[in-house]
């Protein structure tokens, strides 16, 4: 931990980029002004599988303003080199406009370029594509699977046979889409063989390597810029086909190209959380001590890529039990490839495990919180490693107290309020603490201000703010004198803005760089005979409000400005680095949470209304409490959507997504959301990373859906094992 | 199984009376009730090449004079242009956001003659004489509108993309008098989706601004 | 969006002339512009009628209410007479769309709304309403939101309006002005069931313009209200809805006006329910018995079977809300 006083970190500050966002001045991908830009609109396949037999572009090209129509018939051949530095799943990514094959409904088959958006849109609607169509396979329940990924400890099948209590259930969760408010968009411009793109992405570095690989050009010939991201929730973790199309079109047209996906295109032009079918078997003794768990999990993937996410870890370490067997099968379908969505893997796993635990609690007549306490492990039973920190018991205690859990009548369907049946439910949540190598440039200028830069992203959690806080404290500057910039591949590299790893990784690099610069300044001062600090022990010097002084004698010191100008230094600068410890992990690193929810169910009309939700989290140190609170409430809102509303519907006859719009794919609106509350346990995790954080953006979403569905069970006495829970199943 | 599927035959546009023949999109900007801000001719788009010249001559366009954030603009636009695209693509006012382009998310909300509306479903050609206020027109110099400030103070946003629409809608909600309770605000702010899920704080911000707190 | 010419008219005569030349009237534009962008609608000429003097809401000589076709949803919902005398209209309006859309959309446009059927809205799908003879993708597709009443083998699309359901319940008359003069058509005859011509949705003659919707006088006091059941609490179309108005005298139901939404290809008037109520005293048993007739003749599809039950329960709940007794 830093020897510096911590005044910004941990303070409930408002967002540093707030003003830009409330005045409309924050620039998102499609909003950058690029001279001579033309508009591109993608034409999507209207069949779910097959071959393109013809593309008639005459009507489109006859339209005023239409410049070009590009399809596989006239597109230049692209290199499509392998890209090891990407989130591309195993397999081979879609090659845009390189052949006549259609792999899924909505696949890009052509792009229309025009001088105005209206002309490009109209032109796209006039391109006539002929297909030799086949019936696609899009039904998870019917298609054969890949070989499974498996895990086993003990002998789960034997233990199941001898268990005093055995439960067997199948849970299904719907395909859901991230549906961030900003549609994906890319502006691409070539200057000779150098490519600049303004892109909606959670990882400028990933888009950079992918474009370099696709076009067969050096990585440093590609610059990616993305200062603001209008939400992403995982959808910005790959460079999707439209990014390539924008760059390809710009090359063909010889002019910069702007391409924004429509909301409809977001449903097949970017990823999604795949649909899952999860068979679970639980064995326990009569007191609720788990003896065995078996998971048979099936999930959607595409025919051309094998997307996997971590749906297994939680089952291996959340509860203590000697016997576990898991199999995770991906089912290749004629769909576009899924990708991570908030709380990837763990959110689905937690839904399955925490629903099953609730069923067990009810079966045994044990309080759901108590059942979980009885199965708390002493160490991570999947690795044998000790937990760095695991305060799940405290989450339960605090949550139960603040929620008023003890007032609950355990009997289902026991509480009424007029036409409403009232129920409460809870669930645990867990997400791994991920951190990866990151760098950040820190420059302290002679005017006493600092500029900190890293090629990370801020899709909403507040990277701008939290990094500024870390740098301000480590440099000993007032917040207003620190500027943090992000979202440009010219800046020091960072890992993807995902998996709740940004604070741990980039934050640690920012702190390291800031510490170095501060120490440079202190060294300069103590070695400078003209400095009041001359001869002091560097370890005794701190910086506060831009002024270096002795920790025990604040009167003896001077400002950065004075120090630097006297030494004729325009600035001090370094690139700070963070590397996770090399070698095997010594600790089991996870963040934990518990969600408590109350719902009202009108069983006659099939309505579920959320009345209140409380989340309690063990997420390590909280850098930016005000923003962390917003993240938690947002994660809960996302869980309300998952549990009660969200479902991407495919018509299996032709692979068409039938609700590819925001009126038919329902996400929560304001009226769906009651007052919500989040509590972060105070503390830090010294083993996780230098700044003591465990990550929170994923965690706060995990466990919300099962807490709600468990509450629906408690309200109605009906166990619904398929998400989302809609009117037809409740009637 | 193998079938031949076609996209439906596209209907050719019927002959329509040509609009004023202008080479490109042209904006003239004059100040309303004050000193002239910018007179003369401003081309919002880069100078056209030969291809656009031919193109624009055939496009059905109209000439419209409207006021945006107290500035009067006379524009010659493609009849198909929405108010949202006029703002974003032609006037450089990208604060109003395109979230769905179908009236299903509220990110494009602006005030038209004082009422909150979805600018994506508003054809610009219909706005002769209209007064439009966008997020860019709210602050008084450096002083933010109270609702803008309340959004910052309550942290009523994360990614910020829906925020301009939320704020414009919130102003409408307050003007319409639908801030009597949290429940009422929730209902009357339900035309604005926030995928980051900041609803609790959006309600607090609207409440705060409505109460002049 | 296909190109179109644009004219703004300032009086009805000018409007009718433009209409006769094949121009498409646009008022609020919230449905039309949306569908034009999806290329479902491809008008070659738009006639902006928003400046016509058709915005007034007035009490008629006979004691009914005349709502100008261009009155906005928002202003109609908050109009003092509407709120006081016809809560069912006010509630149906405020439960529809969003505040922004209600500021734009008009009463005439609202009843002209086209279906939300996703196959209708997707020009690459088969749809007899959009392209007669192309087939109905919804019939054996994903049809959860579709109709169970008034369907045909050619179309099962639901009429999306809420306020039209209230109008149907109250037996409103649609006033039309056309080249041949004025006429009034009851709304239940104005909105057409699909039959084998699902592309014909309204009994409009070429060039005709809606000028007003008139609610006939009903005996007073009239208790009325609208219940809308949907997945999301706001900003969504109905799974099922009930518009009901009851006139009680001496503890007996003398008049009952009942219609349902979200379940029919048109707003669905429920005469069997009405008949069962008239002459009876309110009771829980009566509500249940009357509501049991709501889904008479329903033809559910693979994904909307639940609407049969839901419709009855929705009507029953709203009867109880208005008429009392638990």
Automatic annotation (TrEMBL), chain A:
Occurrences of domain Aldehyde oxidase/xanthine dehydrogenase a/b hammerhead (ranges): 23-135
Pfam families (alphabetical): Ald_Xan_dh_C, MoCoBD_1, MoCoBD_2
GO molecular function per UniProt: iron ion binding; oxidoreductase activity
Top-level lineage group: Bacteria
InterPro entries xrefs: Ald_Oxase/Xan_DH_a/b, Ald_Oxase/Xan_DH_a/b_sf, Ald_Oxase/xanthine_DH-like, AldOxase/xan_DH_MoCoBD1, AldOxase/xan_DH_MoCoBD2, AldOxase/xan_DH_Mopterin-bd_sf
Keyword list, A-Z: Molybdenum, Oxidoreductase
Stored SUPFAM superfamilies: CO dehydrogenase molybdoprotein N-domain-like, Molybdenum cofactor-binding domain
Protein name, entry field: Acylaldehyde oxidase
From TrEMBL, chain B:
Disordered: region residues: 1-23
Cited SUPFAM superfamilies: 2Fe-2S ferredoxin-like, CO dehydrogenase ISP C-domain like
Presence of the UniProt keyword Metal-binding in the record: yes
Compositionally biased residues, Pro residues: 10-20
Span of domain 2Fe-2S ferredoxin-type: 62-138
Pfam families (UniProt xref): Fer2, Fer2_2
Entry keyword set: 2Fe-2S, Iron, Iron-sulfur, Metal-binding, Oxidoreductase
CDD domains attached to this UniProt entry: fer2
InterPro entries the record matches: 2Fe-2S-bd (IPR002888), 2Fe-2S-bd_dom_sf (IPR036884), 2Fe-2S_ferredoxin-like_sf (IPR036010), 2Fe-2S_ferredoxin-type (IPR001041), 2Fe2S_fd_BS (IPR006058), Aldehyde_Oxdr_Iron-Sulfur (IPR052914), Beta-grasp_dom_sf (IPR012675), TAT_signal (IPR006311)
GO MF, one annotated term: metal ion binding
Chain coiled-coil ranges: none
Pathway(s): Alkaloid degradation; nicotine degradation
NCBIfam families: TAT_signal_seq
Annotated protein name in UniProt: Carbon monoxide dehydrogenase
Protein source organism: Streptomyces colonosanans
Source species taxonomy: Bacteria, Bacillati, Actinomycetota, Actinomycetes, Kitasatosporales
TrEMBL record, chain C:
Residue ranges occupied by any FAD-binding PCMH-type domain in the UniProt entry: 1-220
Gene3D superfamilies per the UniProt record, alphabetical: 3.30.465.10, CO dehydrogenase flavoprotein, C-terminal domain (3.30.390.50), Uridine Diphospho-n-acetylenolpyruvylglucosamine Reductase, domain 2 (3.30.43.10)
Entries under InterPro entries matching the protein: CO_DH_flav_C, CO_DH_flav_C_dom_sf, Diverse_Substr_Oxidored, FAD-bd_PCMH, FAD-bd_PCMH-like_sf, FAD-bd_PCMH_sub1, FAD-bd_PCMH_sub2, Mopterin_DH_FAD-bd
Keywords (A to Z) from UniProt: Oxidoreductase
Keyword Oxidoreductase on entry: yes
Alphabetized Pfam families for the sequence: CO_deh_flav_C, FAD_binding_5
GO molecular function annotation: FAD binding; oxidoreductase activity
Domain of life, per lineage: Bacteria
PANTHER family reported in the protein's UniProt record: OXIDOREDUCTASE, XANTHINE DEHYDROGENASE SUBUNIT C-RELATED
Designated name of the protein: FAD-binding molybdopterin dehydrogenase
Organism per entry: Streptomyces colonosanans
